[in-house]
């Protein structure tokens, strides 16, 4: 039995808590949050202890693994403390807001960094997995272009995104990770633009609610990523991979396959909820994979190195958008 502490009881913390509770190999022992009421309610639901002190939880010798689901700027500090105390760590992306802090952690002690798995849940989604397999098979030739379009439903408030690191480190980072997996070459440059068209609160907080970034490789292959915080028809996720011998793609999943046709046209169901509903199964598989890796003693399939690389690319895109010019991505 692997004893787990979950730090951060926000919306992503609630997803991980539910999946940990379903896994018979894991025991959710403690739920921690600086807001007592939040952690107490979740702890009661899952029969766990509750705490408002991350340091106290991490120093608990009975805990084997820690889920870090806190604001992005706290990730490295908590992960570092946890591995120094002999814990395995599941860290939600981004690995941190601060690129240099993340680099020092990952490159400074690779052995300790190897105890950290990063939460890129789309890697465990069946549609994404099949897309990668189709591209890797080479059956449709070499990749020439990738276009990714990700759009969130309209937001209730900015507060839920205030501690995510901004649209490039939060939303686009998932798309960047998928692009990195699909391409067999490193991305060496990016030109990005950001704007505020949905809610002026984003601008007041130095963030964007719409963003476009085009990355390229040394051989001229490109990936263009389009993100928006507003999609009135629902959550949209589309990837199109254009190859020399054909195209591979995945589309937005509807709530149902029901449709009608009449003189006014064709009517179909809206896309499925938000990312929490769209990737519900992927989150569960991700949690199982974390536990599997600990039990088997294997390396985590999504490493801290992967998290650092994604942050480097997201950071470059953010700088490009703020400078208004292309940015070279160094090794």
Structure description:
This protein is of the alpha/beta class and 331 residues long. The protein folds into two domains: 2-121 and 282-301, 3-Layer(aba) Sandwich (Rossmann fold), CATH 3.40.50.720; 123-278 and 311-328, Dihydrodipicolinate Reductase, domain 2, CATH 3.30.360. It has twelve helices and 15 strands. Strands 12-11-7-10-9-8-15 form a seven-stranded mixed β-sheet. A six-stranded parallel β-sheet has the order 3-2-1-4-5-6, sandwiched between helices. It has a two-stranded antiparallel ribbon with strand order 13-14. Helix 2 (36-46) links the parallel strand 2 (26-32) and strand 3 (49-51). Helix 1 (11-22) crosses helix 11, helix 5 (99-108) runs antiparallel to helix 12 and helix 8 crosses helix 12 (304-323). The radius of gyration is 20 Å and the shape is globular.
């Amino acid at each position: 039995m692997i004893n787990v502490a979950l730090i951060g009881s926000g919306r992503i913390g609630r997803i991980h808590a539910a999946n940990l509770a379903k896994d018979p190999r894991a025991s959710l022992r403690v739920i921690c949050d600086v807001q007592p009421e939040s952690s107490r309610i979740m702890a009661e639901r899952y029969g766990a202890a509750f705490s408002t002190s991350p340091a106290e939880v991490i120093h608990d010798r009975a805990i084997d693994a820690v889920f870090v689901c806190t604001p992005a700027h706290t990730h490295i500090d908590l992960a570092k403390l946890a591995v120094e105390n002999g814990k395995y760590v599941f860290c939600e992306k981004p690995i941190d807001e601060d690129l240099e802090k993340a680099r020092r952690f990952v490159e400074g002690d690779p052995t300790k960094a190897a105890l950290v798995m990063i939460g890129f849940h789309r890697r465990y989604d069946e549609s994404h997995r099949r897309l990668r397999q189709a591209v890797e098979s080479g059956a449709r030739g070499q990749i020439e272009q990738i276009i990714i379009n990700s759009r969130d439903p309209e937001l209730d408030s900015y507060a839920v995104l205030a501690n995510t690191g901004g649209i490039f480190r939060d939303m686009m980072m998932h798309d960047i990770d998928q692009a990195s997996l699909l391409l067999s070459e490193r991305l060496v440059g990016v030109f990005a633009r950001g704007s505020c068209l949905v809610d002026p609160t984003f601008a007041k907080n130095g963030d964007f609610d719409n963003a476009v970034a085009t990355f390229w490789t040394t051989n001229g292959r490109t990936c263009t990523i389009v993100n928006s915080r507003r999609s009135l028809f629902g959550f949209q996720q589309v990837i199109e991979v254009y190859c020399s011998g054909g195209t591979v793609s995945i589309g937005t999943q509807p709530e149902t396959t029901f449709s009608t046709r009449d003189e006014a046209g064709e009517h179909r169901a809206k896309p499925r909820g938000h990312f929490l509903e769209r990737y519900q199964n992927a989150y569960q598989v991700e949690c199982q994979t974390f536990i599997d890796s600990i039990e088997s003693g294997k390396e985590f399939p999504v490493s801290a190195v992967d998290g650092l690389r994604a942050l480097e690319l997201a950071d470059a895109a953010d700088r490009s958008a703020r400078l208004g010019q292309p940015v070279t991505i160094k090794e």
